[in-house]
């Protein structure tokens, strides 16, 4: 099996091993950006703002 790791991956693995609190901060910061739940009112607003798609996107108007 091929076990190549780039220098960047090696650096990150070593850094996280030396700084275990950083892994917790990464999870916390990830949650701020990606693990967001939208309430029903907010989702309805996004759905209402959508424009209908054209049948053929490259057709000139």
UniProtKB/TrEMBL annotation:
Domain of life: Bacteria
Listed InterPro entries: DUF3460
Classification of source organism: Bacteria, Pseudomonadati, Pseudomonadota, Betaproteobacteria, Neisseriales
Protein name: DUF3460 family protein
One Pfam family cited in the UniProt record for this chain: DUF3460
């Amino acid at each position: 099996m091929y076990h190549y790791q780039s220098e960047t991956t090696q650096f990150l693995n070593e850094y996280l091993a030396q700084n275990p609190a950083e892994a917790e901060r990464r999870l916390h910061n990830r949650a701020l950006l990606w693990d967001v739940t939208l309430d029903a009112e907010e989702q309805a607003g996004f759905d209402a703002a959508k424009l209908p798609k054209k049948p053929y996107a490259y057709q000139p108007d």
